[in-house]
Description:
The complex is a heterodimer of chains A (95) and B (570). Chain A is an alpha+beta fold and 95 residues long. Chain A has a single domain, classed as Histidine-containing Protein, Chain: A. Chain A is 31% helix and 24% strand. Chain A has 3 helices and 4 strands, in the order βαββαβα. Chain A has a 4-stranded antiparallel sheet. In chain A, strand 2 and strand 3 form a beta hairpin. The model of chain A has no long low-confidence stretch (mean pLDDT 85). Chain B has 570 residues and is α/β, with parallel strands linked by helices. In chain B, the strands form 2 sheets. An 8-stranded mixed sheet of chain B has the order 1-8-7-3-4-5-6-2. In chain B, strand 12, helix 16 and strand 13 form a beta-alpha-beta unit. In chain B, helix 1 runs antiparallel to helix 2 and helix 22 packs across helix 24. The longest helix of chain B has 24 residues. The two termini of chain B are 29 Å apart. The mean pLDDT of chain B is 87.
Amino acid sequence: MLYSEMIKKKVTILNSSGLHARPSAALVKLAGQFKSDFYIHMYGYRVNGKSILGVMTLAAEQGAELVFEVNGSDEKEALNAILELVENKFGMEDE
Amino acid sequence: MSNPKPGEKVIKGLTGSEGIAIGPVLVVDEKRKRIQPRKIKADAIYVHLQRFAKAKAAFLKELDELTLNLDKKTAEILETQKHIISDREIEKKINSVIEVELYDVEYAIYGTFNEFIERLRESGSELFQQRIVDLENLRDRLILLACDNDRELEIEKGTILVLQDISPTDLVTYHEKGIKGLVMDKGGVTSHAAIIAQSLNIPCIVSTKVGVRHASNSRKAVLDASSGELILNPSRAVLTEFKKKIRDLNKAQKAFIKAGERSETKDGFPFHLRANIEFQQELILANEFKAEGIGLLRTEALLFGGMSKRSEIEQDKYYDSILSGMSGPVTIRLFDVGGDKLHSQTPDENNPFLGWRGVRMLLDEKAMLISQFRSILRCAGKYPGRIRILVPMVALVEEVVQVRKVMEEVQKALMDAGIPIDESVPLGIMVEVPSVALLADKFAKEVDFFSIGTNDLTQYALAVDRGNERICSLYQQHHPSVWQLIKATVKAANENAVPVSVCGELAGNKLGALCLLGMGVNDLSISPASIPKVKEVLTSRSMLELRDFSEKVLDCSTTEQVHEVYGSWD
Lengths: 95, 570
């Protein structure tokens, strides 16, 4: 893409266990379904959002503020889907 | 050996398992096995890339097979592990360490995972510290799969192994490869490895401290486990002396096997000697010494042997192998582990022996408890009347009630599915927490049998951690307080017509066995190797004498007095 626009979006982690192993797995799995590149920024780190180890090693706890960066042909759909997952607390709350 | 000859070197320890062995010495130094950065040549790149790809595929397959038999929550955890192993970033990195930096596959995996582990560590987040252990486990499993078994030990038959410490599973594996002796720098005489060594009839000394440092691989050495010595470079005279001792021992054992048919006191009171075992391989000795069944089957090896052994099919096979390999009753103890053995992510406990273990853990991990019940109950259906189920680490009456409820639910589910079960399979408890002995009368109304576990009972009665070297002299199995707790349990059992047996080291030594029988416990479960010794001493006495002895013991106020009573009586 020549004039690739890139979307950035600030997000806060809501679920109590943070971006723990299973939430990370859910996030990575979802991101992997889209063509767009997906990166997460946190406290100066930038990790590949399609790599579970990358995401896990951010050690993002509840309340952590992240910036999602999505870039590619399906970036809008990707971002919306990912935001929905975060808002739904990765479907893992109250087990 | 009082006078070591020149060149002869003696390493001293404590007796873990009696016996004598002569054979070559192999020293295993765990430290040397640590992963070092090792460079490879360019023409080896392909081989190392392949080894990683294969290890990854093998690991994924292992996890897939596991997922089949697990509940949803556990399966999800495994699913996450699969994600981590298949992570593209990791793969790219590992491949580039091999291709570009020219390191071997072991180090490539090790270094790559460590980068992420370090980052997590630096994050300082408490919540995420637990994940570090998970990642380390994944890393180590991958390395093991990638290293193509070339790090596995080659062992000559008849070898005497010298090492720091050994897991029960490894010990059984080495036993199958034919080791004849074991020297452990760490561990005490009641360590797990020592108990297994006894039951596999492998002479073993423990707590040698300097064995790995001072011994070296050699052609011939003498392990005299009964006196706690490893003699390196033995002289010809020493060799001749010990060869004769081994011949005499073998003769005595054969004579016993022929003679020792009847299990009764001189005046005709019958008693039963059963075996404590954990591995199928231990059945050989139990059968040879004519154990009347298995009085304690420890099932923890199903958990230690790595996750892959935990599936229900593996459990089914294991129980079946024990029941079919032995006649007589088999008492199966439910998983008796601390939380650390179950989940690597369980935080360390300050007092693990007072912590989340035994029935406390089983009731929290229902899926695991149900799965174990299902497997045991199916097996009981196949071998009706032969299985008893034993609940470990019970402290409260409510715990028994809850476990029984779970068992009955599983029984009902099996029956509904048309699977044959043994409806009257007895459910009993370990008496190892003093509260149970003190309330034995109440417990007797909820259980089908008692099994007194004297090792832990001693530990809890005297508040002493037997693994703590500073205070281990306080761990006194013959202490009067332990005898009083046993007495209270036996009394309640008799009044309520509940069978009572003893499993534990106490029943395996002469003083203990004599006194227990005198107190009316005629069902003892001990390490198979101790059966000849105990049988001999019990058949040589009359019940009248034994009652007299036990009354004197119950009158004592110190362990020393107990030993004096035994000394003057014996």
